[in-house]
What does this fold into?
Amino acid sequence: MQKQKLQNPTIDTPKLETSFFEPDPYVELKATDHFIELSKLELEESKSFADAYLKKFEEVFKLAVQEALTRGLESVLLERSKIDTAKSLETLIPSSDEQMSKREEFERNVAAFKAMEKDLENDPKFRGKFVVLYKGQLVDSGTDRAKLLSEAYRKYGYVSLIVHKVGERRVMRAYSPRYMRHA
Amino acid sequence: MPNTHPFDGIHFNPPAAALKVNVANQITGQTLKDDVLALIDSGADLTNLPVEVAMNLGLQPVDFIEVGDYSGKSHGDKPVYDVNIIIDSIPFNVQAAETEGEFLIGRDLTNSVKLVLDGPKFEFTL
It folds into this structure.
């Protein structure tokens, strides 16, 4: 099976600054004893060192966190790219457009089924059987759900489908209310 | 081989029968990188799968179901996915309904196992 091309996450990848400080002959970021001594002197004598660079430290810290998160996300994508799948690999970490498209596809199939539901129930050819809807069209029917699904995936790939039993109306109840407690 | 798990008193008050599970896409075989917390809910007709899990696994709907809450209020039609819920390394094949709420292990799964809730000991065996 072909591996699909990775999609780049639509996330800004800020670059960390390599130098914390503005060029300054007295405070240059080097891992030297001299710098450390200077910093200690500043800290001991006054708080101007921390005061002067606190904002900079905060900025750099935020960038570091963002970069770490981005690297984490990139490594997840890389890990997942090693998985071979059948056609719809774009669902790895779908963009909001893709999520919307999946949702729209699902809703289209449901709407199409509901539009033809009465006719299907009145037709002995479909009554009590499973029907398969793909892209809003009835594409197959039968009594073996697993076989219908397998056949549909073979024909169209791993895509959004409705395989629904004509005449069956299921309502799922999920109870478990949560009570908010305020301390 | 039954496994005993402690109730979860960190996320639930009072403590509840909840445990970390993994989920597998039946078609691609993809599983979650990390296990996720799921609440065993005998009040749920079906297993409820969080939408984030469905997205992470690249799940495609196979059906739809109308969802109603404890007050009888309808929350519309939700996608249903064919998944394997992996508990203690054992896969359970279910048709899970998508939810924007908690991951709930419903009676579709629990009715296939012996589940013993020991309240005084704050533990359950599956």
Remarks:
- The two ends of chain B are 9 Å apart (CA to CA).
- The CA atoms of residues 67 and 73 of chain B lie 8 Å apart.
- Strands of chain B lie at 4-6, 18-25, 36-40, 48-50, 63-68, 74-87, 90-99, 104-105, 116-118, 123-125.
- Chain B touches chain A through 40 residues (CB under 8 Å).
